[in-house]
Amino acid sequence: MTISKLTTRGSTRLKEHEKRRIVDDTSRKRRHRKMIESLDADNYHEDPHADLVMSKKIPKFEDNLETRTRSKKKEKSPEYYQMKFRKHILQLLDEDRVEAETAGRYSYMDMASEDTNIPYRHFCAVCGFFSQYVCLTCGMRYCTIKCMDTHTDTRCLKWAG
Description:
This protein is an all-alpha fold. It has helices at about 10-20, 25-45, 80-85, 90-105, 145-155; strands spanning about 135, 140. It has a two-stranded antiparallel sheet with strand order 1-2. The two termini are about 45 Å apart.
């Protein structure tokens, strides 16, 4: 078999790396801030399935057909009210600060630890284990080749503009 001069051999990993766009540090920080804000907003929104009404004729899993009774008013559990009136983390921190000022104690934001000589721990952005490697494109960390593949397929900024 002869290989023509037009066909070049080489690593597909290197070819894939050339397609990527290297993002600067400010874009990385902006992207991380947006990711955290979207996760925070996702945790704070109302449950869309909380007020779903199922058909009354369908028995529930814990009910028997013979012993099923109808109640006039549906009682709401304490968990319902906790979910309905839950607070954002920034609201909780602000309330703690105000309460600490009136009570004369330290608030959560006033507490600080001393600087340490131990280096920071870095965790994998995919699985959460300790990571040793950093993505060249977006700066997120990963621990294994499997996590790197997951990162490049789903989380990486390689196509970000």
